[in-house]
């Protein structure tokens, strides 16, 4: 009798343990990939799910967005400049079944793929493009990664290049290039100013040439400006055209 009660109690405890192990609770951002005798059965969750011990096995998958920091990569640009680039990638699992069945560890696979893709995409562009067109390069890397990780049930939403490190010699070369560019722009602006001034002077000369009296008035205005100084004596030549305009008879040359 004691033996029967002891054996029955053991069976009851065993059943309770199996039932406790069979029920799983998954949060809203979690899913369970269930296998029946080694074959894929279905995706369960969130909430309370039932797993039959021994017959069924399951893998928990997180659906939240994962932020991955890509280690710094040595990139050789199209113009043969070596730079060190690091980036950050945002991705998440959109198909739990594929993330378990199609790839062993989707996090490590995405990380290694991001490193090789970063070097491959950035290596096709020159250094100036790498420094000035980051938005374009971010989108190009994101599209390549998203296409390749789609078979794993992973969606790459954003790629951001954080920093581009240059060696000291390249930094000095870029500084000299920027200084030369500023000098070039200054010379161009000065030349454009000279061109515009010469055009205006040409227009003024053409207008004054139409009325000879206007030239004489301009001459007298210049003398008035000179007389405004503190000088008490002013020596200036009298043009023949001015005397002719005033009606003065010029002496004949002998």
Structure commentary:
The model has no long low-confidence stretch (mean pLDDT 83). Helix 3 crosses helix 5. The chain has a 3-stranded antiparallel β-sheet. Strands 6-7-8 form a 3-stranded antiparallel β-sheet. It has a two-stranded antiparallel ribbon with strand order 1-4. The chain contains 8 helices and 8 strands. It is an alpha+beta fold and 254 residues long.
List keywords for this structure.
single chain; 254 residues; alpha+beta; 3-stranded antiparallel β-sheet; 8 helices; 8 strands; 52% helix
Summarize the structure.
The protein has 254 residues and is α+β, with helices and mostly antiparallel strands. The protein contains eight helices and eight strands; from the N terminus they run αβββββββααααβααα. It has helices at residues 2-22, 96-101, 106-122, 127-132, 134-149, 168-210, 212-227, 240-246, and strands at 23-26, 30-36, 39-44, 47-50, 56-62, 66-76, 82-93, 154-165.
């Amino acid at each position: 009798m004691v033996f029967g009660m002891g054996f029955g109690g053991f069976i009851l405890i065993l059943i309770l343990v199996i039932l406790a192990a069979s029920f799983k609770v998954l949060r809203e951002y979690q899913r369970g990939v269930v296998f029946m005798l080694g074959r894929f059965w279905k995706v369960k969750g969130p909430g309370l799910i039932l797993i039959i011990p021994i017959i069924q096995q399951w893998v928990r998958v997180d659906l939240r967005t994962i932020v991955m920091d890509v280690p710094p990569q040595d990139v050789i640009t199209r113009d043969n400049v070596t730079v060190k680039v690091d980036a950050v990638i945002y991705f998440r699992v959109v198909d739990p079944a594929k993330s378990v069945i199609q790839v062993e560890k989707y996090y490590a696979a995405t990380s290694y793929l991001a490193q090789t893709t970063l070097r491959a995409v950035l290596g096709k562009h020159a250094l100036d493009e790498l420094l000035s067109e980051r938005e374009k390069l971010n989108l190009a890397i994101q599209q390549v990664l998203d296409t390749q990780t789609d078979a794993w049930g992973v969606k790459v939403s954003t790629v951001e290049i954080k920093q581009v490190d240059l060696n000291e010699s390249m930094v000095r070369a870029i500084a000299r290039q920027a200084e030369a560019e500023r000098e070039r722009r200054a010379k161009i602006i000065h030349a454009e100013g000279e061109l515009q001034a010469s055009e205006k002077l040409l227009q003024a000369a053409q207008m004054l040439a139409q009325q000879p009296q206007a030239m004489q008035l301009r001459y007298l205005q210049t003398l008035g400006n000179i007389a405004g100084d503190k000088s008490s004596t002013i020596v200036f030549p009298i043009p023949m055209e001015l005397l002719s305009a005033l009606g003065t008879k010029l002496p004949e040359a002998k």
